[in-house]
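Example for tutorial group B:
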């Protein structure tokens, strides 16, 4: 069971953090650079391919498996492990992951879904976006860029904490 929890935690954690970093550094800036054409890209990725759903499932599985691993290592959240350097570092990483998950669920995902819907409407019309659609899409893309950067930073810190925790006395 422990091996399965660790496998889920590492694989889904890699996907979650890697996707967040990719989105912040490459995807969202490219979508913004494409202007109105970026809406079609967002619609394909978020609307048809359901990336926000995969992204959140990965986050949920990573956090839940991490809690299970932490529970195991701390013998039911009850021993000195939680006060050790490694235990506290894992704990900090876990708290950052939970914050990121909640942030993603309640802030980033709704923005991405809205951008996808607008992109879909623009693509379905076969016409250039209306001024209102263009303005809303630009605003959403700016917000998504900032939010994605914050999520990527939090998950980078989380990943660092998980990578070094076992080596902190």
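The residue assignment follows.
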């Amino acid at each position: 069971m422990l091996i399965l929890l660790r496998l889920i935690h590492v694989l889904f954690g890699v996907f979650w953090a890697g996707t967040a970093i990719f989105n912040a550094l490459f995807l969202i800036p490219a979508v913004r650079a494409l202007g109105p054409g970026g809406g079609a890209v967002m619609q394909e990725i978020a609307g048809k391919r359901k990336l926000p759903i995969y992204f959140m499932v990965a986050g949920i599985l990573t956090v839940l498996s991490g809690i299970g691993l932490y529970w195991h290592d701390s013998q039911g959240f009850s021993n000195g492990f939680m006060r050790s350097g490694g235990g506290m570092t894992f704990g900090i990483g876990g708290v950052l992951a939970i914050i990121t998950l909640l942030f993603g669920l309640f802030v980033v995902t709704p923005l991405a879904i809205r951008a996808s819907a607008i992109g879909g409407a623009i693509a379905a019309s076969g016409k250039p976006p209306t001024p209102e659609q263009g303005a809303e899409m630009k605003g959403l893309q700016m917000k998504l860029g900032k939010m994605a950067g914050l999520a990527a930073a939090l998950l980078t810190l989380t990943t660092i904490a998980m990578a070094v925790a076992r080596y902190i006395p």
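The radius of gyration is 19 Å. Compare this with the pattern of hydrophobic and polar residues in the output above.
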